[in-house]
């Protein structure tokens, strides 16, 4: 049950003075709090014995007021310290998780779904914060304050009466232990269900257009109702188990009060205790009610915190199983060499790249073509270090690619992926994302290179136009060109376009390719595409099929070979001509002069 506190030891150690100060203030506050019943008891005795007068009344009143004021100030200090610490823990844990997410690559995100990561990074971390804040308060109250009360009851009233009143409360520890384990299990099941609901909601939002297009709204509503009903049942199960704690505590507490009153009456009758002592003792028992009841809350908080800690640790310490230990700083792109390079995804039953042999000279343009699933993107991912390196040789310059420092490599690369990731910000912000402190002039230059000028003119607010989450308010072609502009503004040593021109027309494509060739002369460019016209001017073109290079050469050389490239290029040319030609067949209703 206390595992979560052990796991959070690093945080308590980092903030030891804050927590130490809070605990000292809480301890002193507890001492002053238990003085109040003692003062009241003496006050009642003074009335009963006839010793009460103006001086005695003033003395007890000042003592009472002083204790209340001091207790108020101390309560503020420990309350602020504990709960401010809880918010600070949330901040630090989420910051650590975010840093971890940003370091992870594709294999990590294949293990965990987005909704699950969000649930663990929000609700589970909030449960940990509750442990570090309210949980520590309850722990101190359930232990320190209770111990202070017991000692005060024994010293100022009667030790025998104190033990008689406290002993009936001990058996409830067993009940709390058993039910606490059940809470732990039920809470973790509920959290997993919450993660699953999160995942499906995110998928529904992302796929809203498809859902509406296929008229599946009702199906998704029914599915969501079913999931939320299941989540409700699981959370109700947690509440059902947790609900047993308070009645259990109150039952044992009632037994304790009954014993205290009965035994106390006997002691008063024997003259061992005064009426003021009994009143003070009952006040002590009343003050013990909250700490004892809070034991149930403490068990619930610690159990939930333990379950949440396991879930957070699972994603915090999970890795992408990629271990790039390169130390060479890559200052510029050099020649690339693949020799007998072979790669297979961990989830794949077949080889995805098979004995690739390729030399890409610095400053040249490489075209990568092939049918869907041929391995184009897989080959590009080797340059991005997104997956473990395969076997064989993969060098840049005179050193193995794995020997280079990964961040230094990524600083040299401008990458435009197939799935264009845009942020819910302005056009300016999305493009400037590629270059720190980019000026509007830099942005406009990259926009011209990406052939986005005319589109920008038609936008109401120009560069300040908000494009919506994931670019929902713009077309596919506009998304691609903004992504290309974002990569070009970086002016990278190596530019990688991974099927990044599929949504633009042939004329716009040729404009972009021409601009890239003009501006990036002497820099390395890799273009992966299905539209072969995009790689006509490449220095070398490779054709992939099932992870193997089956053709290679320049555009003219591949045309002369009359292989797959020739067939595909011919089909695409005929299709483009057919689509662009005006209908030339005679109108059957047109008047003919020769009739």
UniProtKB/TrEMBL annotation:
UniProt organism field: Alkalibacterium thalassium
Membrane topology per record: Multi-pass membrane protein
Region (Disordered): 576-595
Keywords: ATP-binding, Cell membrane, Membrane, Nucleotide-binding, Transmembrane, Transmembrane helix, Transport
Transmembrane segments: 20-44, 64-89, 127-151, 157-176, 241-266, 278-302
Domain named ABC transmembrane type-1: residues: 20-304
InterPro entries: AAA+_ATPase (IPR003593), ABC1_TM_dom (IPR011527), ABC1_TM_sf (IPR036640), ABC_transporter-like_ATP-bd (IPR003439), ABC_transporter-like_CS (IPR017871), P-loop_NTPase (IPR027417), Type_1_exporter (IPR039421)
Protein name in UniProt: ATP-binding cassette, subfamily B
């Amino acid at each position: 049950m206390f595992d979560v506190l052990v796991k959070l030891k690093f945080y308590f150690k980092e903030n030891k003075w804050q927590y130490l100060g809070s605990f000292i203030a809480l301890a002193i506050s507890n001492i002053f709090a238990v003085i109040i019943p003692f003062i009241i008891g003496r006050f009642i005795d003074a009335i009963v014995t006839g010793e009460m007068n103006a001086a005695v009344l003033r003395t007890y009143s000042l003592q009472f007021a002083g204790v209340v004021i001091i207790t108020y100030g101390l309560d503020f200090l420990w309350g602020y310290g504990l709960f401010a610490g809880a918010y600070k823990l949330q901040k630090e844990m989420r910051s650590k998780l975010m840093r971890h997410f940003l370091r992870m690559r594709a294999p990590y995100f294949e293990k965990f779904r987005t909704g699950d990561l969000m649930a663990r990074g929000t609700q589970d971390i909030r449960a940990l914060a509750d442990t570090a804040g309210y949980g520590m308060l309850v722990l101190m109250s359930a232990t320190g304050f209770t111990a202070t009360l017991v000692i005060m009851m024994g010293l100022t009233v009667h030790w025998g009466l104190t033990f008689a009143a406290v002993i009936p409360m001990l058996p409830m520890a067993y009940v709390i232990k058993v039910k606490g384990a059940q809470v732990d299990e039920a809470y973790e099941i509920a959290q997993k269900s919450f993660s699953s609901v999160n995942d499906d909601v995110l998928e529904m939002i992302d796929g809203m257009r498809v859902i509406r297009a296929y008229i599946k709204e009702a199906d998704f509503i029914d599915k969501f109702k079913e999931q939320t009903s299941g989540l409700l049942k699981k959370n109700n199960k947690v509440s059902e188990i947790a609900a047993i704690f308070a009645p259990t505590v109150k039952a044992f507490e009632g037994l304790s009060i009954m014993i205290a009153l009965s035994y106390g009456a006997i002691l008063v009758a024997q003259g061992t205790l005064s009426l003021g002592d009994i009143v003070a003792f009952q006040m002590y028992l009343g003050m013990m009610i909250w700490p004892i009841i809070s034991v149930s809350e403490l068990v619930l908080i610690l159990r939930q915190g333990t379950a949440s800690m396991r879930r957070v640790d699972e994603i915090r310490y999970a890795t992408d199983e990629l271990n790039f230990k390169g130390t060479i700083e890559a200052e510029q792109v050099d020649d690339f060499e693949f020799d007998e390079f072979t790669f297979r995804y961990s989830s794949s039953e077949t080889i995805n790249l098979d004995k690739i042999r390729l030399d890409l000279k610095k400053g040249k343009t490489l075209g990568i073509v092939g049918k869907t699933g041929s391995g184009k993107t897989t080959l590009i991912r080797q340059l991005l270090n997104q997956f473990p390196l395969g076997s064989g040789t993969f060098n840049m310059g005179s050193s193995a690619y794995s020997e280079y420092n990964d961040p230094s490599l990524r600083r040299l690369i401008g990458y435009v992926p197939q799935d264009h990731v845009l942020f819910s910000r302005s056009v300016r912000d999305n493009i400037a994302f590629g270059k720190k402190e980019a000026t509007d002039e830099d942005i406009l230059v990259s926009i011209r290179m990406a052939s986005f000028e005319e589109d920008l003119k038609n936008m109401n607010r120009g560069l300040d136009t908000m494009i919506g989450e994931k670019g929902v308010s713009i077309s596919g072609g506009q998304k691609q060109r903004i992504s290309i502009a974002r990569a070009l503004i970086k002016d990278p040593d190596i530019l990688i376009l991974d099927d990044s021109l599929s949504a633009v027309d042939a004329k716009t494509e040729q404009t972009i390719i021409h601009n890239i060739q003009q501006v990036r002369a002497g820099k390395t460019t890799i273009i992966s595409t299905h539209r072969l016209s995009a790689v006509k001017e490449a220095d070398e073109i490779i054709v992939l099929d099932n992870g193997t290079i089956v053709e290679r050469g320049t555009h003219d050389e591949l045309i002369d070979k009359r292989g797959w490239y020739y067939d595909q290029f011919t089909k695409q040319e005929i299709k483009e001509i057919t689509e662009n030609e005006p209908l030339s067949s005679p109108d059957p209703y047109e008047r003919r002069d020769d009739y």
